[in-house]
Structure formats: structure tokens, C-alpha cells
Design brief:
Blueprint lengths: L1 E7 L20 H14 L9 E8 L7 H14 L2 E10 L6 H7 L6 E7 L3 H7 L5 H13 L5 E7 L6 H13 L4 E6 L7 H7 L8 H17 L3 E4 L2 E3 L6 H8 L3 E4 L4 E3 L3 E5 L3 H10 L4 E5 L2 H13 L5 E2 H8 L1 H16 L3 E4 L2 E4 L1 H5 L1 H8 L7
Parallel strand pairs: 1-2, 1-9, 2-3, 3-4, 4-5, 5-6
Antiparallel strand pairs: 6-8, 7-8, 10-11, 11-12, 13-15, 14-15
Helix pairs in contact: 1-2, 1-10, 6-8, 12-13
This protein binds iron/sulfur cluster (SF4).
Iron/sulfur cluster (SF4) binds next to loops.
């Protein structure tokens, strides 16, 4: 089994918090689609004939693609890879989800929509430079449902400047009322290079304090749990059977091919990532020049990857898998490093798994850092 990710680096406007690679310039979009199709064709052996079960259009804003552009990409995927799609996701901005666009999507095997809503409060949306209002976002979700798209995920952000606990509670209540089976909720991070990072530096916005962040995370887990939407990863919550299959493959080591500028790929041994520059990507594909960087994963990097990806999940890190894949020295190192966190109530070791508690999930970066290894233990 394998997955394909297609990165569409187009946005109508830039949201202040976003550090994904995208551009508001779309003068070269037909060349971009052509280059993505050429990359898909050129790399047809990358997944070694594994059946592609998940396809994910991310971005950027894939909902800016026209049906003829989507059609070209689907043709390139289906012509070059054995496909038995179980999940085909399109990320979408609410204001692109018109009746006409949703009708056009029915021509394709797209069966999951991931909609960036972020907040149901217009003052937050204005601050974040989102293109839609809260009412428009809710209307878009209902429109998708009326067109038969039931497998919908919505994205929310918490820990926004000036956001109160009751405002976050109201966001969660409105999300639950939309009756979608999947919710991704991320704490705002101030990434260097983003506009909101500069606003923070200039004192135009303030970070929420840690106590409030912890309360927001607790409320997120408890309200969604009560609504039957269970946490399966730090930022992801789903009704039973509705977890994101494509994203889950990132956490369980399934190979995936990423096409398009800035897309990442993993074939089980190496990671590679395409250049984050659309013009250079197009030119390199056309001229046959390299357009990606490659990291060959040694045993320690693979162990570190396993720590990061498995601890993000509620299922946790399987110690049998750890011992089998990496051997005794890594197994012993991991157990030694995790011991203080167990004592502090941050992690538990049960049923031969290491799992993070609620406190641990909130502090996951610090725990992962301690469990990761700088060099081979032998
Ligand atoms: S959050 Fe989405 S719409 Fe906003 S700038 Fe980033 S990729 Fe574009």
C-alpha cells in the first residue's frame, strides 16, 4: 500500500500564520500542472508498484484548481500507478466551495474534503487574513453535505491572540453542531518568517499564556470526546472509522510520493523534498535538472523518525516493533529516557507501549527530544 500527495502552491491571499509554501502568483499555473504531471510520470517506479490507496491534494489551495486541471492530474496518477483508491482528499477553502465547483468534483473519485475554517469568530478570521466569514464557512460545509460529501474534516486553530476559553468553547460547540466526522485542531505557533511572527515581535499581538493553552487543549479533548469524536493523534480527532487514512500513513511508515513544489516523499528508506520555488521547479522538470534534496535515513534517523511519529498517536510507541526494528541498544535507551517522564505523569508504559498522557501530549516536543538519539548507541 502507498499514498500520493500533490502540492498545489497557489493561494488567493496569504494567511498571517501560514508557513506552508505557496504563492499568490498564478500566472504559470498551466505550466505548474504540466510539471506536476511530468513528475508523476517520471517517478512512476518510486513506489515500486505498490497499490496507491490514498491520494491527497494539499497546499496551498487545491480548491483553486479547475476541473480540467484536476482531470490532467488524475490522468497522470492513474496512467502511472496501480490505483485502488480508498480515500481521495481535497483541501479546500470555504469560499471556493460553490454549488458549481462541488458539482464538478463529482466527476472525480474525490471522497473527502478537508476544509480550512480556523475559527467561527469573524474578528479572529480578520486577524488571520482568512478570505471567508464564519457564516460563509458554515454554509460551505452544509453545501458540501447537501452535495453528498459526508467525509468532511474541518481545521481549527486555538491559542489565538485575545482568544478566551469561552470563545474557544463556542468554536468547538459550533464545530460539533456541523456534524462532521473529523476535526483537526492546532495550537497557533509563531513560525519565523510569517506575518504573525513579525506582529508578535512588534508587540501588535500577544501569545496566550501557557495555563490558558493547557485549559484549551483539555477542553478540546473533553468536548470532542463527549461528542463521540475521539482523539487519535495530537491534533486529530475522528468519529470511529473516520480517521484520515492518508495522514495516518505518515505516522505508520507507509511509503508515499509527493509531487509538486515543496512536496515531501518517503520510500521506506530515504526522504526527499522538492524545492520550494514554483518557477525553479517548473524549469528543473523541463530541463531534467535535479529539483529535490535527498536524505538517506541511517538507523539512528529511522529510530528518531519512529519516536516522533509514533508518540504523536494515541496508540503510542509499540515497544515490540521498536525492539524488532532497531534492536536492544535502542530499546534500552528508549526505556531509560522515558523513565523520568513516567515518574512525572507525562508518559505511561502499558501493554508494551509508551503512550503520552494528556499532560505529555501537550509537552510532546520536549518528550520526543529526550527520547531521540544524537548518535548510534553502540
Ligand atoms: S493557510 Fe492555506 S489558504 Fe492560508 S496561506 Fe496557508 S495555504 Fe494558503
Amino acid at each position: 500500500m502507498a499514498g500520493i500527495y500533490i502540492h498545489i502552491p497557489l493561494c488567493r491571499s496569504r494567511c498571517v500564520y501560514c508557513d506552508f509554501y505557496s504563492s499568490t502568483f498564478d500566472g504559470n499555473r498551466s505550466e505548474l500542472v504540466e510539471a506536476i504531471c511530468a513528475e508523476l510520470t517520471e517517478r512512476r517506479d518510486y513506489l515500486r508498484e505498490a497499490t496507491v490507496k490514498t491520494l491527497y491534494f494539499g497546499g496551498g489551495t487545491p480548491s483553486l484548481l479547475r476541473p480540467d486541471e484536476l482531470s490532467e492530474i488524475f490522468s497522470a496518477v492513474e496512467a502511472n500507478y496501480p490505483c485502488a483508491f480508498e480515500e481521495v482528499t481535497l483541501e479546500a477553502n470555504p469560499d471556493d466551495l460553490s454549488d458549481a465547483f462541488l458539482t464538478s468534483l463529482k466527476r472525480f473519485p474525490i471522497n473527502r474534503l478537508s476544509i480550512g475554517i480556523q475559527s467561527f469568530h469573524d474578528d479572529d478570521l480578520t486577524l488571520l487574513n482568512r478570505r471567508h466569514t464564519a457564516e460563509e464557512a458554515k454554509a460551505a460545509v452544509r453545501r458540501c453535505q447537501s452535495h453528498g460529501f459526508t467525509n468532511i474534516s474541518i481545521d481549527l486553530i486555538y491559542g489565538l491572540p485575545n482568544q478566551t476559553l469561552s470563545a474557544w468553547e463556542d468554536n468547538l460547540r459550533q464545530a460539533i453542531e456541523l456534524d462532521v466526522p473529523h476535526i483537526s485542531a492546532y495550537h497557533l505557533t509563531y513560525e519565523e518568517g510569517t506575518k504573525i511572527y513579525r506582529m508578535l515581535q512588534k508587540g501588535e499581538v500577544r501569545e496566550v499564556d501557557e495555563e490558558l493553552s493547557v485549559e484549551m487543549f483539555h477542553l478540546l479533548r473533553s468536548m470532542l470526546q463527549e461528542a463521540g469524536i475521539q482523539q487519535y493523534e495530537i491534533s486529530n480527532f475522528a468519529r470511529p472509522g473516520c480517521h484520515a487514512r492518508h495522514n495516518s500513513s505518515y505516522w505508520d511508515g507507509t511509503p508515499y510520493l509527493g509531487a509538486g513544489p515543496a512536496a515531501h516523499s518517503f520510500d521506506g528508506k530515504d526522504r526527499r523534498w522538492n524545492i520550494s520555488n514554483t518557477r525553479r521547479y517548473i524549469e528543473a522538470i523541463r530541463s531534467g535538472e535535479p529539483y529535490y534534496e535527498l536524505e538517506v535515513l541511517d538507523e539512528t534517523s529511522s529510530y528518531n523518525d519512529y519516536v516522533i511519529t509514533s508518540l504523536r498517536t494515541i496508540a503510542g510507541m509499540d515497544l515490540d516493533v521498536l525492539a524488532e526494528r532497531f534492536g536492544e541498544p535502542y530499546y534500552s535507551y528508549c526505556l531509560r529516557q522515558v523513565r523520568p517522564f513516567v515518574g512525572d505523569g507525562v508518559a505511561v508504559v502499558e501493554e508494551n507501549h509508551v503512550r503520552l498522557t494528556e499532560k505529555g501530549l501537550f509537552l510532546s516536543d520536549a518528550v520526543m527530544e529526550e527520547l531521540m538519539m544524537v548518535e548510534n548507541p553502540e
